[in-house]
Amino acid sequence: xxxxxxxxxxxxxxxxxxxxxxxxxxxxxxxxxxxxxxxxxxxxxxxxxxxxxxxxxxxxxxxxxxxxxxxxxxxxxxxxxxxxxxxxxxxxxxxxxxxxxxxxxxxxxxxxxxxxxxxxxxxxxxxxxxxxxxxxxxxxxxxxxxxxxxxxxxxxxxxxxxxxxxxxxxxxxxxxxxxxxxxxxxxxxxxxxxxxxxxxxxxxxxxxxxxxxxxxxxxxxxxxxxxxxxxxxxxxxxxxxxxxxxxxxxxxxxxxxxxxxxxxxxxxxxxxxxxxxxxxxxxxxxxxxxxxxxxxxxxxxxxxxxxxxxxxxxxxxxxxxxxx
Length: 324
Fold this sequence. Notes:
It is a single chain. This protein has helices spanning 10-23, 25-28, 52-62, 91-99, 122-126, 130-135, 156-166, 183-190, 193-203, 227-241, 252-261, 274-280, 316-323, and strands at residues 31-34, 40-43, 67-72, 83-88, 103-106, 115-119, 144-148, 173-177, 211-219, 243-248, 297-302, 307-312. By secondary structure, the protein is an alpha+beta fold. It has a 6-stranded mixed beta sheet with strand order 1-2-8-7-6-5, with helices on both faces.
């Protein structure tokens, strides 16, 4: 992919969203803390109740201020009508350079067992993943934000690592963390419905610079106190209830092939509640067929011809089985 021309700064665009999240912490049932010289920590669901609205806002932060996330009262699955809708005019930057949970962060203290995948604009400031070389993008900013799917704040060694890789002082970092078992955590995972489609587009080798626009939706997944169920529900929302439309440049044959290859129905592991699949592979995400991680139904519109190609199908029964 060619380097972006006049690329936006995802950290600068997200900064006012982060400040507003912190300023309205009480109303959102989240907690903000900071020690002198250290990062700002925002607990959105570990030691506090959090909220769906906090999760919606965190999802917009993850998109680097380049997209909108809304909760709609109508969705594709009748028994679970409320849905998370995502739209961005710069899907490659918003989803892959920012929202994608691609930075593995592990604490040095084995006894503490801290491990989390980092997502959001802070990834682009560090750009330690090979993906950023492909994207030709790195964000330079004096303030960064990183979102963690974790049940606690990062330890000091992880803070130091992030500060070093992003070339900022620790007090210029905001960490937002929430476990998937929480309202905010579950909501922001469902809001990755467009991102997982873009990630699969990349895995399939379709040129990312031909992806012009995109939007998606998936049922709002209820959180669960059990880790496996909590992990399963938002993933099932996308895999069995997610719907995405991409607008691409190029010939119809490429658009048709992309549409046929994208849906989760192409996976050998398709067809059971995600928690069941997760347990079958002993909780190892990387053992699951990667083709499963994509929306259930896809529309690809070829802008050069105006034709649209559809593939996949929603599986309401599997959404219901996963949520229930």
